[in-house]
Amino acid sequence: MNGLRVYVIAELKVPGKNPGAFYSRRDNGPFYRWTMGEQHWSVSRVSVSSLSVKNLSAMSWKSVPTTLQKSIIEHYQD
User: How many C-beta atoms surround the C-beta of residue 72 within 10 A?
Assistant: First the structure.
């Protein structure tokens, strides 16, 4: 998917450990926050004013949990 980026808060980026929340953005669009609910990923739009963008660290797509990858793809389908 072109222009898609996935991030975590830099301090929480530990190899092999789930950071608890992921953030996504496509091109110059809005940021979305992804968290695991009881059985599925929940997404909410995040205001840039409430997000410290400089603290975000990019994730490789391969490091994103498979179930989250599927949810993100469904979310951004054109």
Answer: 22
**What's the number of CA atoms in the CB half-sphere (13 Å) around residue 32?**
20
Distance CA 48, CA 15 (A): 26
Cα(35)–Cα(27) distance, rounded to whole angstroms?
Answer: 21
Q: Residue 31 and residue 14: Cα distance in Å, rounded?
A: 22
Q: What is the pTM of this model?
A: 0.84
Return the DSSP state at 42: E
pLDDT score of 13 more than 70: no
Task: DSSP letter for 40, please.
Answer: S
| Region for 40 from its dihedrals, namely left if φ exceeds 0, alpha if ψ lies in -120 to 50, beta otherwise | beta
Dig out the tokens for 73 from the structure.
């793809």
Closest by CA to 19, choosing from 35, 43, 40, 38, is 35
Name residue, tokens 């179930």.
67
